[in-house]
Amino acid sequence: MSDDLSAFGGDPLWVVLLKAVLIFVVLVLLTLFNIWWERRVVARMQHRIGPNVHGPFGLLQSLADGVKLALKEDIIPKAADKVVFVLAPVITVVPAFITFSVIPFGPEVEIPFTDVVTPLQLTDMPVAVLFVMAIASIGIYGIVLGGWASGSTYSLLGGLRSSAQMISYEVAMGLALVAVFLYAGSMSTSQIVAAQEEFWFGVILLPSFVIYVISMVGEVNRAPFDLPEAEGELVGGFHTEYSSLKFALFFLGEYVNMATVSALATTLFLGGWRAPFGIAQVWEGANEGYWPLLWFFGKVLLFIFFFIWLRGSLPRLRYDQFMALGWKVLIPLSLGWIVAVATIRAVSLEGGIDRQYLLVGIGALAIVFLGLFFVGDSGDDEEAEASEREAALAPRPGGFPTPPMPAGGPVRGAAAPLRFDEPHVGGTATTTTTAPRTQEES
């Protein structure tokens, strides 16, 4: 498929400015709604009420919180690098808005009260998806630099964790998108949406879709992958020392990034702005005019709900589990799936085996390999736990060996066994028994 981008680049200046302002306003309003929606959904999951006072249904609660943050005292730590400390939140939030410049919201439409026809997309380019990933990578540097410039150990560790996540999960995410490029024959977002007119890539490229969804959660530092801001061990992580508007920018960047990866998943795997299956067959105008905006934002909000559901359901992973998932599971599966998709495309183009049978077979193999990965990991974990138990029960030089209890190990608070050969302080042995001692005393 050739990249036909003739619809872009010819808009008047006022149309370009109008699109840019609308994208900014929509993302800000969407962030305010997403914060309220997350608090309401998690409250319902935890049998609470959630925000319900400010505005109808509490919809103005996010706005009230934003005003509160703006009025708080802005503190810069004495040990901080002031220039980098101030620039880090800006570096995080600006790329989050820029990435939406190549996201298609709908087809070509006529602007009301004018005769200007323009696509519902700011711009497009032959490598638009690579542009999104490159700009999103810059946003991670804001977190890294913010943690480093704060002058705090907790913040520094949060920044280091963020850089590790960026390396690990961006590799898996990029590899998951290769299959989409092979199938669509283009890296242009508008052309990828056009290639999904009959079938969504989320269905025929299901392994890529699953890998991308897992990677996008790690990419935006959301639970259960929110290791850079784990309050259990790092207080607040990279933003521990931030307050007022600087903290608000980090907060805004996180929620806009959620919308960005959700919009990219919608564009690449769920047909973009096209109506769901069945609606277009019944209603001819479902993909015309401004109606596609409804389908696009409906799919984006579906992903946002997925983020919220994960946060309210799953506990945070250990850091070693998190890294092992990226390097030992997602990246090998992505590489194997790329080879499979390339084979399918080559065979299909040459008129060989039916593509549907190949997809079913490769999908089954992918599920088998995924199961083997998890089975292998569980066996390694059992062996590691067994070796740890043996090491704990082994006698230490000069120590007091305690045999295991019948249940398999020493019980906290249980009395230690009697010893008949324990020496006195002076070094002479005795055959008298010693009084039982608790585990804490020993």
From TrEMBL:
Name of a matching Pfam family: NADHdh
Region (Disordered): 385-442
Biological process terms in GO annotation: aerobic respiration
Ranges annotated as biased composition (Low complexity): 408-417
Parts of the chain that traverse the membrane: 12-37, 83-105, 125-146, 167-187, 199-218, 247-270, 290-310, 322-344, 356-375
UniProt KW Methyltransferase keyword: no
EC number(s) from the headed UniProt entry: 7.1.1.-
GO molecular function: NADH dehydrogenase activity; oxidoreductase activity, acting on NAD(P)H, quinone or similar compound as acceptor; quinone binding
Coiled coil ranges: none
GO terms for cellular component: plasma membrane
UniProt feature, compositional bias: Pro residues: 398-407
Keyword annotations: Cell membrane, Membrane, NAD, Quinone, Translocase, Transmembrane, Transmembrane helix, Ubiquinone
Subunit structure, interactors included: NDH-1 is composed of 14 different subunits. Subunits NuoA, H, J, K, L, M, N constitute the membrane sector of the complex.
Similarity-based family: Belongs to the complex I subunit 1 family.
Function according to Swiss-Prot or TrEMBL: NDH-1 shuttles electrons from NADH, via FMN and iron-sulfur (Fe-S) centers, to quinones in the respiratory chain. The immediate electron acceptor for the enzyme in this species is believed to be ubiquinone. Couples the redox reaction to proton translocation (for every two electrons transferred, four hydrogen ions are translocated across the cytoplasmic membrane), and thus conserves the redox energy in a proton gradient. This subunit may bind ubiquinone.
PANTHER family: NADH DEHYDROGENASE SUBUNIT 1, NADH-UBIQUINONE OXIDOREDUCTASE CHAIN 1
Full protein name: NADH-quinone oxidoreductase subunit H
Gene: nuoH
